[in-house]
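We modelled the chain as a single entity of 132 amino acids. Its sequence is:
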Amino acid sequence: MATKQYFYGLGRRKSASASARLYDGKGEITINGKTASDFLSGNAELVAKLTDPLALVDKQGVYDITVLAKGGGVSGQVDAICLAISKALASINDDLRATLSKAGYLRRDSREVERKKYGLKGARRKEQFSKR
């Protein structure tokens, strides 16, 4: 049996990482074995954010997408998935790469949580100063 050809992209955000595979299909998005709306608990805003790169290049309904997302929270995972889909689309065609790059979908948001330091309440928060 021949394997289906796919386009691959890897995205990361905060402590979340996601790998996306784009197959020729009807536009179904599967995340960790669930449909996108089930995985995101029906949050239409987050589902729309997933499909923004596809809508930008007029490829909605052209590819079936399977995603494996790990780590972080829901918002970080959605941003990682968005980057992974964008990278997979960019690997298809250089014209798509230019469009996605101009819109900022190929830029990784490198902000991470700063670690807590000893003697402090958080990363930088100190105890309240008491004069007496």
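As a brief sanity check on the tokenised model: The chain has four helices and five strands. The longest strand covers residues 16-24.
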